[in-house]
Design goal:
The complex is a heterodimer of chains A (245) and B (649).
Chain A: E1 2-4, H1 13-21, E2 32-36, E3 45-49, H2 58-62, E4 68-70, E5 76-78, H3 88-92, E6 99-100, H4 109-114, E7 129-130, H5 136-140, H6 146-150, E8 156-157, E9 165-168, E10 190-193, H7 194-201, E11 217-219
Parallel strand pairs in A: 1-11
Antiparallel strand pairs in A: 1-8, 2-3, 4-5, 6-7, 9-10
Chain B: H1 3-7, H2 19-27, H3 35-61, H4 76-87, H5 89-100, H6 107-124, H7 126-131, H8 140-144, H9 150-173, H10 176-186, H11 191-201, H12 208-241, H13 253-279, H14 288-319, H15 322-332, H16 336-357, H17 363-391, H18 410-433, H19 439-449, H20 479-484, E1 492-494, E2 500-509, E3 512-521, E4 524-525, E5 530-536, E6 541-548, E7 554-558, E8 571-579, E9 587-592, H21 616-641
Antiparallel strand pairs in B: 1-9, 2-3, 3-4, 3-7, 5-6, 5-8, 8-9
Helix pairs in contact in B: 2-19, 3-18, 4-6, 4-13, 4-17, 5-6, 5-12, 5-13, 6-9, 6-13, 6-18, 9-12, 9-21, 10-11, 12-13, 12-21, 13-14, 13-17, 14-16, 14-17, 15-16, 16-17
Classes of the chains: A alpha+beta (245), B alpha+beta (649).
Bound molecules: iron/sulfur cluster (2 copies).
């Protein structure tokens, strides 16, 4: 995944889409948009933070029962049928990605009807952890994750590193074959070479020095396409919700 | 009352103490409890019941009844866990180290110390269970356990430690058992109690051979329990130290925790000594000398702990890495934690050091006061290790409009209180069944007291522990694979109106490889047509560029270099007509070789810390350590089994 900080205007549509599609209770967000300001005189910017699906994931290292695991395609998932709720993974993840089912979750009937798989993480169970899963169920259908599909700015790119390609753009029709209908058919959707995008735009990974080898790259917020947070007209819907209760 | 005076008062002249007197005096502590004792036990039972009720509430409602949330995801329970495991080190230090170094004054203290170890572990270890979101799944740890997780190290080393310390406590109790059996019989106690004592005596009698075997068993246990204890608190600290969090990810966390553990453990023994001394009138055996010796030890440990604290936090503060700086602002700055921290420094560290350095005339009181302060202080300190770090995540939670703040809920307090009550209750009941001072050792002490007096401090060596279990297999799925096995459909052309046809092929132009699209309308090459080229990717079409056809109807872009294909290196290309509008929509797709073949990560997952399979070195190390420890236990048990077979003596 590549997140273009120059394109993100903090509208929070990605968060809403993720929360809706995963039936998230109001006390948590898998994807969270932070308002960052790195230094005193630096400009603030919006910083969407999914799970980074690290290649050397500290969360997976410490799980005593292998309930958090890394698949061979690189995706890090949680199996809530095995998790014992020790929350070591939450303490170990340096990016504060993980959320916990502190009480008995309310599972909507749609969630129950689909049945459980770590690939979508619901119906959820009390006393287990969960987190952003990169929507592998969508990837199976050749579709973008919900956040990337919902971003009106096309700020979230997603793809398979093995293919050296990432795709972005709003999912206009939400049609089943949208991605493969050729130019024009999927709105502004575009696919570019990952290596070239990172080279041209100075892609970096967050807190690289921790050695977790995240699989999410950020493109620095240069030549922004939106007003920075704090500028007039900017605070239009930052996804600030209450602390989880 | 002045303790100093009492101990040397003419009422209990020490020359009157022979082994017989010791025995009958210590046995008298087992007499039925008075009114005060009954209230004490009932009170403790009530608090335990409240704690148990709180736990039931938590089991029914989930951890929602605590104040822990997604940022501060560990709280008071983890603090309790570290605290109890900490005071469990009392037994090891006092008893094992002093036994190994043959410090004579230890004798009246050993049993109490060993009992603290066992009960602190029995109360402390379940704290992890209480903290778990799914205690019902605890068996998963044995079914799917991964040895890369410090939690497994904890479980294995605490189990090893608990087994070892029960064995150790028991071995040292054996010589008292025949005495207890006889006493119970004489007093007409229930025959079942007599049976229990007899069974536990394993046929031990006063004979040279019995003594020799017992000494062997005791020596082996005392020696092995020291490294086991050190390993236990080291791996407890590693639950924190192995994460990347500021304030936790620290190289000195192992020794810092071990010193803190022995520190709080010694204070716990002194406190327990003071309580039992008063409750059972043991002034003639628990002498000011014992308090003074332990007080000195406590002083050394307090200074050591102060030193570790200073080096831990001063370096964090002085270095001032952003994450550390934010933690230090919370921990030692103008916050509730900061206030608590400095209160701890003053009352949990400096005040005890002051009391111990200048004990004045009322030395026992000063030492006991210092110990109580240390006990309270160390609980607070454990709390301050667990919580503030979680409250300073790398990405400041405040940036998302969240203020993580934590203070334990009623349920958490109730369970904590219940745990402390359970600890005291176990201790009390134990002292009702078995004399809290070891009869045989105290008698030995009395015999020896006139002759000599030995006191030696000692140091322990670290050693972690764990056990072996196979790992589980990944649910390996095929999202990446699906992508790469793109359908291998041969060249096909998608017709458009006016019968425009596109053909797509690869050609070389001089040095360069190109993708060529030939556009024909009704069989005639069409010039001036814009064609766009794509490569199929799993989630979309990767644009390769566009070109206008020449007179021969061909357009070309350079063949993409180094673009990954499927497992055979095949890529599916597409060429589509963009303009003129009359021809737009005509397209061709071809699967061609020329891509970089995808790697296939087949076979077993790597051996890595994050993987399902633990690194070999880790498994070998853990196995070797465990074998050493458990074979010593086996040796001890073997010695005990042979006690019965020994003929008279
Ligand atoms: S970002 Fe956190 S939860 Fe996600 S893989 Fe990395 S360590 Fe694990
Ligand atoms: S909370 Fe669950 S997923 Fe996380 S480390 Fe514990 S068992 Fe593993």
């Amino acid at each position: 995944m590549v997140i273009d900080l120059a394109a993100c205007d903090g509208c929070g549509k990605c968060v809403t889409a993720c929360s809706d599609k995963h039936f998230l209770p109001p006390d948590r967000e898998w994807l969270r948009v932070f308002k960052m300001k790195d230094s005193e005189n630096g400009a603030p910017y919006w910083f969407p933070r999914p799970c980074f699906h690290c290649d050397d994931p500290p969360c997976t290292r410490v799980c005593p029962v292998g309930a958090t695991f890394k698949r061979q395609d690189g995706i890090v998932l949680v199996d809530n049928e095995r998790c014992i709720g020790c929350r070591f993974c939450m303490a170990a993840c340096p990016y504060s990605v993980r959320t916990f089912n502190w009480g008995h979750p309310d599972n909507p009937s749609d969630a129950v009807a689909r049945g459980y798989s770590p690939e979508w993480g619901y119906p959820r169970r009390v006393g287990t952890t969960e987190k952003c899963d990169f929507c592998p169920d969508m990837a199976r259908l050749g579709k973008l994750p919900h956040c990337a599909a919902a971003c009106p700015m096309g700020a979230i790119w997603f793809g398979d590193e093995n293919e050296d390609a990432v795709t972005s753009g709003p999912d206009k029709e939400h049609s089943a074959t949208g991605a493969n209908e050729g130019p024009g058919a999927a709105g502004d959707r575009q696919t570019v070479r990952l290596s070239q995008l990172l080279r041209d735009r100075g892609g970096y990974r967050y807190l690289e020095d921790l050695g977790t080898k995240p699989r999410v790259y950020y493109l620095p917020p240069v030549n922004r396409r939106y007003p920075a947070p704090g500028e007039p007209d900017a605070e239009k819907g930052a996804p600030v919700r209450g602390e989880q209760r | 009352m002045s303790d100093t005076v009492r101990a040397t008062s003419p009422n209990v002249p020490s020359e009157n103490q022979d082994a017989q007197a010791v025995e009958s005096y210590l046995l008298s502590t087992l007499d039925p409890v008075g009114r005060g004792g009954r209230f004490w036990i009932l009170g403790l039972l009530a608090v335990v019941a409240v704690g148990a009720a709180a736990w039931v509430t938590q089991l029914v409602n989930g951890l929602r009844v605590t104040e822990m949330r997604n940022y501060v995801s560990w709280g008071a329970y983890m603090g309790n866990f570290v605290f109890f495991i900490g005071i469990s080190h009392a037994g090891t230090l006092i008893s094992a180290i002093l036994r190994v170094t043959d410090a004579g004054w230890r004798r009246p203290i050993t049993r109490m110390a060993e009992a603290i170890t066992v009960f602190a572990l029995i109360v402390g270890a379940p704290m992890v269970l209480i903290d778990m979101g799914r205690p019902d799944r605890v068996m998963n740890v044995f079914i799917y356990g991964r040895f890369q997780s410090p939690i497994l190290w904890d479980i294995v080393s605490i189990t090893t430690y608990l087994t070892g310390s029960i064995l150790y406590l028991y071995v040292a109790m054996i010589p008292d058992m025949p005495i207890l059996a006889r006493h119970a019989r004489e007093r007409g106690r229930s025959p079942r109690l007599v049976r229990l004592y007899e069974m536990m005596s394993l046929g031990y009698r006063e004979s040279a051979e019995h003594r020799r075997r017992l000494a062997l068993a005791l020596g082996a246990m005392a020696a092995i329990i020291i490294p086991v204890a050190v390993s236990v608190h080291t791996v407890v600290s590693w639950v924190f130290g192995m994460t990347l969090r500021p304030g936790w990810h620290s190289t000195i966390f192992g020794p810092y925790f071990v010193v803190g553990a022995i520190f709080s453990g010694t204070a716990a023994i002194i406190t327990a000594m003071a309580i039992f001394r008063r409750a059972y009138r043991l002034e003639r055996y628990l002498l000011p000398l014992h308090f003074r010796h332990l007080g000195k030890l406590l002083l050394v440990l307090a200074l050591l702990y102060a030193y570790f604290t200073l080096s831990e936090y001063l370096t964090a503060w002085y270095g001032g890495i952003e994450a550390d700086r934010r933690l230090m602002e919370l921990l030692a700055g103008n916050t509730a934690y900061g206030l608590t921290f400095w209160l701890w420094v003053v009352f949990g560290l400096f005040a005890p050091i002051g009391f111990l350095l200048f004990p004045g005339r009322r030395s026992i009181r000063a030492i006991v006061a210092a110990s109580v302060l240390v006990n309270i202080g160390m609980w607070v300190k454990r709390y301050l290790i667990v919580v503030p770090t979680l409250q300073t995540p790398f990405i400041p939670a405040e940036a998302a409009g969240i203020t993580p703040w934590y203070f334990p809920s009623v349920v958490e307090w109730a369970i904590t209180a219940g745990a402390f009550a359970a600890f005291l209750l176990l201790f009390t009941l134990f002292s009702r069944l078995f004399p809290i001072l070891s009869i045989w050792e105290t008698a030995e002490d009395v015999d020896e007291a006139r002759a000599r007096h030995v006191r030696v401090p000692a140091v322990a060596a670290p050693q972690p522990g764990s056990a072996v279990r196979p790992a589980m297999l990944l649910v390996a799925l095929i999202v990446g694979g699906l992508t790469l096995l793109a359908p291998a459909i041969p060249t096909n052309a998608v017709g458009a109106q006016e019968a425009a046809r596109v053909e797509l092929r690869r050609a070389s132009e001089g040095e360069e490889d190109v993708l060529v699209a030939a556009v024909t309308v009704g069989g005639v090459p069409a010039p001036g047509v814009t064609v766009e080229f794509f490569a199929y990717r799993h989630l979309g079409l990767l644009a390769l560029g566009e070109d206008e056809t020449l007179d021969d109807g061909t357009a070309a872009v350079s063949f993409p270099r180094g673009l990954p294909g499927n497992l055979r290196g095949d890529i599916r290309f597409r060429a589509a007509v963009l303009s003129p509008d009359s021809l737009a929509g005509a397209a061709a797709e071809t699967v061609m070789s020329g891509g970089v073949p995808a790697r296939q990560d087949a076979g077993e997952p790597p051996r890595a810390l994050w993987s399902t399979r633990a690194p070999t070195g880790l498994l070998v190390g853990i196995t070797v350590l465990l074998l050493c420890v458990w074979s010593t236990y086996a040796f001890t048990i073997w010695q005990l089994m042979r006690l019965r077979g020994i003929k008279g003596g």
